[in-house]
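Team,

Forwarding the record for the chain on the shared tracking sheet. I've put the sequence and predicted structure together so nobody has to dig through attachments.
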Amino acid sequence: MGIELFLLIIFLFCFLFMIVTQWVFWMRRKLARRNIISDWRYFLDAEKSNDVELLNLYVDKLIWNRYISQDQIDQINKVISVRVENYTNLGDLYNVTKNRRSYLSDDDRLRIYGK
């Protein structure tokens, strides 16, 4: 009787752990999808004002967001490549943007950006 109860407790614990893990991943994806548009606007504002600290912050947020499109990655790469010689703290971000590719399909892009 003891081993069955022990196995049942382990099974329930693993099942609960899987549910909580999936819920956390789902919430993070939902947050990333919601923040991509506002982070993009902040990035464009930082580019216009030539604020390197804000550029560094928002490029870092955008480049790791799974919902970024390839056009946005290319535009970020252009913005960073112009400034990388004058600001050495953008060098690591430039290397990341240079090698980053979008994972969005056309349907995902239409659903998120509406165009």
